[in-house]
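Could you please consider the sequence and fold appended to this message?
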Amino acid sequence: MADIRAFRGFRYDLGQVGALSDVICPPYDVIDSALQQHLYESSPYNAVRVELTQDQPGDDDIHNKYVRAARAIKEWIGANVLRQDTARSLYVVEQSFEVEGQTFTRRGFLARVRLEPFGTGNIFPHEQTFSGPKADRLKLYQATAFNISPIFGLYPDDANDVFTKFDGLIRNAPPTVALDHLGVINRLWVVTDTALVSQVIGLLGPKPVFIADGHHRYETGLKYLEDEQAAGNVADDEAPQNFCLMMLVSMSDPGLIIQPTHRLLNGLPAVTSGELKALLAEQFKVVGEFDNAAACWEHVQLEESQSVLGFGSVEDGQWIAVKLNSTEIMDQLAPDQTVDWRSLAVSILHKLVIDKILVGKYGVTPGCQYVHLLREVTEADQNKTCQLACLVPPCGMEHVESIAGSREKMPQKSTYFYPKIPTGLVFHSLKKE
């Protein structure tokens, strides 16, 4: 059983900071330098000042961005800019947003969740992690003793019975509202009713949790707990270091969407669509030819198959949609992976098309840029900033559940859950209950 708790979060005092819109920020991994500067200028209390503090000339082991983040959060608490809630609470979050002309609303809630080493309990990862981001987040945890941004977790609930418990609250209580830089409307409700909290936790407890986003932060939490235990700083199993801040969303929530992650390949010779068809002919059948990315992508979507990919030649501006002839080649290329893993479009693209066919032909591994919107693909094609554009259908929630449930990890950038959970709605202390 996943151990999920209400907690006393730290939240901005809007009487001091102004609008919540001015102080939230995205998680660190989607903030570039321009956005970082914009967020810095939006408020002296914007969460970016602790989530992704700016580097400064002359930084060293004593004076650096982690020390500045710790100083900022300490000063904010001291000045009551951040206040800790008096009651243990759950924090309901509703996000309304638009994707490719359609409007969605995703609903979930923030809670404290007990950390479990992967492979030992009911919390399942689905993507690989890398050492760099984990080292960065660990330094931040060590300096601030806070979870600054939440992990994004999913739980199975076909009838959405868990979240339905919050419906009365949402209908009758006004939320705190924040608009982010992408136009996403974030609404926040604080749940202190102990009976309601108990009902929600009781329903959710027996369910597994699948990490959608924040794998690096979760593994950092495990490392931080291990280090704190070794230093004798963890009093018992109830100490806050045993937990992490997590946003929990039903896998059946109608606003939960997985966006595609397309690939733009660089470092290859110029490749025409005719040459590409010849390269792919042994393993793929051409199921459509187009003169623009939009038409090709429409065909890929209509196929509703993980075995169909779209490719665009920047050299001649032509696009093809192709379908894998047989699964046998993937069985040979990835014998240690499950059938579900081998059937993913991203697995087929990377294992077969890139690693075997393109590397086999050109002798180089192409660079790979990841984009999510069709207009980004079109711009790259028009500006000739890559040699090949690859249109990749998104995987479904059933793929995440089956692959992660088998304790297997998907290839890098297999999923993109939009929008991100904003930083700054609630902070979770790793020291103070």
Summary: The chain has a mean pLDDT of 95. The longest helix spans residues 345-362. The chain has 16 helices and 19 strands. Residues 317 and 400 are 34 Å apart (CA to CA).
